C-alpha cells in the first residue's frame, strides 16, 4: 500500500513539473535593484532583516537579510530582484531565539504534562522601535533607473 502512495506522488510531481516547467521563475516587471548597509552603534549588523513597506499601503513589500558586513539586497519574489520604485517605510529587526530548544520528544512530553506547547523565548537584538515601519522613523525613496544604495545607522 505505501508503494501506491509513492507512485501517486511521483506522478503528481511529474505533472506539476510538466505544467509549470523546471526553469520558469515568477517575475515582476519594473523592479529596481536596492541594496544597503545596516550598522548599530557604528558596527555592521549581521543577520538583520530589512523590510521596505509601501508608505501608501499600495504595492508590494520587499525584504533582505544582512551579511557579515551589514550589507543587504532587497527581494520581492526572486533573490535580490529588487522592488518597485516609490516611497517606503523601513523596518529593521534582529531576533535571537531562546537557547533552550527542545527535541520533538521533549516538546511532546511538555505538551502532555502542561496541556500546551512550550513557550520559546525570543530576544530583540536591536531597539524595538526599529522593528515596525510605523515606529522606526526610517523611510527611503526608491527611484527607477538610479543607484539605490542606502545606509541605515541605528543608535
Please give a quick description of this structure.
The protein has 155 residues and is α+β, with helices and mostly antiparallel strands. The chain is 19% helix and 32% strand.
What is the element layout, followed by pairings?
Blueprint: H1 2-20, E1 31-32, E2 35-40, E3 43-44, E4 49-54, E5 62-65, E6 71-73, E7 83-84, E8 86-93, E9 95-97, H2 104-114, E10 122-124, E11 138-142, E12 149-154
Parallel strand pairs: 2-12
Antiparallel strand pairs: 1-7, 2-3, 2-6, 4-5, 4-8, 8-11, 9-10
List keywords for this structure.
single chain; 155 residues; alpha+beta; four-stranded antiparallel beta sheet; 2 helices; 12 strands; 32% strand
Structure description:
This protein is an alpha+beta fold and 155 residues long. It contains 2 helices and 12 strands; from the N terminus they run αβββββββββαβββ. The chain has helices at residues 2-20, 104-114, and strands at residues 31-32, 35-40, 43-44, 49-54, 62-65, 71-73, 83-84, 86-93, 95-97, 122-124, 138-142, 149-154. Strands 2, 3, 6 and 12 form a 4-stranded mixed β-sheet that branches. The longest helix has 19 residues, at 2-20. It is extended and about 55 Å long. It starts with a helix and ends with a strand.
